[in-house]
Amino acid sequence: MNSTTISGIKESRLHIPKHFTIVLLISVILLILCVVASLAFGSRIVGVSHVLDGLFHADINSYEANVVRKRISRTLFSLLCGAALGVSGALMQAVTRNPIADPSILGVNTGASLFVVCGIAFFNISTANEYIPLALVGAALTALFVFGIGSMGRSGATPLKLVLAGAATSAALSSLVMAIMIPQSHVMDQFRFWQVGSVGSGNWSSISTFLPFLLIGIIIALISSPALNALALGDEVASGLGVRTGVLRLTAALGAVLLCGAATALAGPIGFIGLLSTHVMRLLLGPDLRFVIPMSAIAGAVILTVSDVSGRIIGSPGELEVGVVTAFIGAPILILLTMKSKVRSL
Q: What's this model's pTM, rounded to 2 decimal places?
């Protein structure tokens, strides 16, 4: 039975990719292991039995069980931010047809950072609820600017031009961030902890603030995925199939900005999650975004949580912020992907 998407495409029955069940099962197992590791490791390591006590036995009031309960909000926040960044990366790669698109590579995170530091310096903002609108506006304007610059010329928005435009924009905005921050010591003190990228400040308040943006962004991504599959064939083919390419790009980009902007506002600019999670799932499942997008959410949650746990283990008894860990892992992989793909379009 055929169903009609909002883009006007007639979709035939869903073809499940080969090995999808195996990939899903392994991903869920890894997700569970990440949750257990995140609850167990920190400045004090607790055993699996204490993790289970903290989760399922409210009557147990031991020190270890209380430690586990305090780590639940951080773990959930890490999972949600990773899922948001994973889906955002998948949307950005689909919209730009750029296999190495990522919020950090295209300068979107830096745009959010600039607006946040301006808010701290000029409007004395200090809470997550105040960071979010500024980060969303900064991310959206930067995405539009980079895509506009990358679209100039006869060949349009090629992957190479988008990456170069993103790199140049990110460098320019980073200079503006430093110019605003350095003369004002109170701004530097407040901003530098946020700028590194960390999920350590995740609490139930930030989770409740983040959830609406996450849900809206993921709904947009899932609804847009069939039309984005057609867009991968080229604008002319997609238009022939009934896709309104301009509306589709705007809608999908809005979903990507909501996801990465809200995550950046609350956790700081964490890079490479969208790049890594989407590439892993596309490698395992193929190009169908109806499967790649939801599985990128799981992969992003796993990668970010593993990075957070690794930072706690490496930096023990303190911790190494997750933004540093993801950059350390992601930068070499980005170089390898660039060399392998030669920055070809999807």
A: 0.87
